[in-house]
């Protein structure tokens, strides 16, 4: 395939996944990752391009939805994920990404599945996880994000319990991705990985990102809180499937 055809197909993936993140506040990178790697044939290039696209999307929503950020929960989240982030950066080359992502994928399928059961079958007695487990999700999520830029699902497992309001949830999540991906982008710059190839790919993919933002924002404004939470956990369940079977 020609480069432009590859980037067009990547753009379709970017549009779909960034529409979803514009609705929920998470999911674009981890959902797009396996498909973009398969199309580009380069794990590191895919990671860099998707990290920057996710950063642009997140920064946009931080600016336009700043008043909805839940600062108390953001403080807890950024502290614990921030502790894990540098560890993930350091051990990136020592980990087998396929095995790790599949283990995480199974875990996410189970935990998201439990939440889906609770929402669709409210009479079923399924207990919420204790707070210290949620804090563990945040720390491990920071490690995984530092290594592969896909630690979001673990953070979402904590945040969906603590931030029930859909606008606060999305705004707080995108602020987190803005901060974490800024750290990753600085690392790419210092390592001289922000090449002309990365710049060209981003330029071609930018219209697909903008389209995803417009469509996702429209859908977000149309759904109520209950439906939003169902979308979040169904999306999370799909993320787990992608991580488990398509990594």
Characterization of the model:
The chain is mainly α and 247 residues long. It has one domain (3-245). It is built from ten helices and no strands. It is globular. The chain starts with a helix and ends with a helix. The mean pLDDT is 86.
Number of strand segments: 0
Molecular shape: globular
Task: Kindly estimate the percentage of residues that lie in beta strands according to DSSP.
Answer: under 5%
The total number of structural domains is: 1
The tally of helices reads 10
* Main β-sheet description: none
SSE order: HHHHHHHHHH
Fraction of helical residues = over 70%
Structural class: mainly alpha
Poorly predicted runs of 5 or more residues: none
Gap from first CA to last CA: 22 Å
- Round the Cα radius of gyration to an integer and report it: 17 Å
The chain-level mean pLDDT equals 86
Task: Break the fold down into its secondary structure elements and pairings.
Layout: H1 3-24, H2 28-40, H3 43-64, H4 71-91, H5 97-120, H6 131-148, H7 152-162, H8 166-190, H9 196-222, H10 225-245
Helix pairs in contact: 1-2, 1-9, 2-3, 3-8, 3-9, 4-6, 4-8, 5-10, 6-7
Any key phrases for this structure?
mainly alpha; 247 residues
Task: Write a concise synopsis of the structure shown.
This protein is mostly helical and about 250 residues long. Helix content is about 85%, strand content about 0%. The chain is globular.
């Amino acid at each position: 395939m020609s480069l432009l055809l590859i980037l067009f197909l990547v753009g379709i993936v970017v549009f779909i996944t960034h529409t979803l993140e514009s609705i929920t506040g998470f999911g674009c990178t981890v959902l797009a990752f396996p498909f973009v790697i398969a199309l580009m044939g380069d794990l590191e290039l895919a990671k860099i391009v998707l990290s920057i696209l996710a950063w642009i999307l997140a920064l946009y929503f931080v600016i336009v939805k700043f008043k909805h950020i839940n600062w108390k929960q953001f403080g807890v989240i950024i502290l614990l994920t921030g502790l894990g982030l540098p560890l993930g950066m350091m051990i990136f080359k020592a980990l087998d990404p396929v095995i790790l992502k599949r283990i995480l994928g199974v875990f996410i399928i189970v935990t998201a599945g439990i939440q889906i059961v609770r929402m669709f079958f409210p009479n079923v007695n399924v207990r919420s996880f204790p707070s210290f487990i949620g804090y563990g999700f945040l720390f491990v999520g920071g490690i995984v994000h530092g290594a592969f830029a896909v630690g979001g699902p673990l953070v979402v497992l904590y945040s969906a319990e603590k931030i029930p309001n859909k606008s606060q949830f999305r705004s707080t999540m995108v602020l987190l991705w803005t901060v974490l991906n800024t750290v990753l982008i600085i690392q790419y710059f210092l390592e001289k990985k922000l090449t002309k190839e990365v710049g060209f790919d981003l330029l071609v993919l930018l219209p697909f990102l903008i389209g995803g933002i417009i469509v996702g924002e429209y859908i977000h404004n149309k759904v109520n809180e209950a439906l939003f939470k169902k979308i979040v956990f169904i999306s999370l369940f799909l993320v787990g499937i992608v991580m488990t079977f398509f990594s």
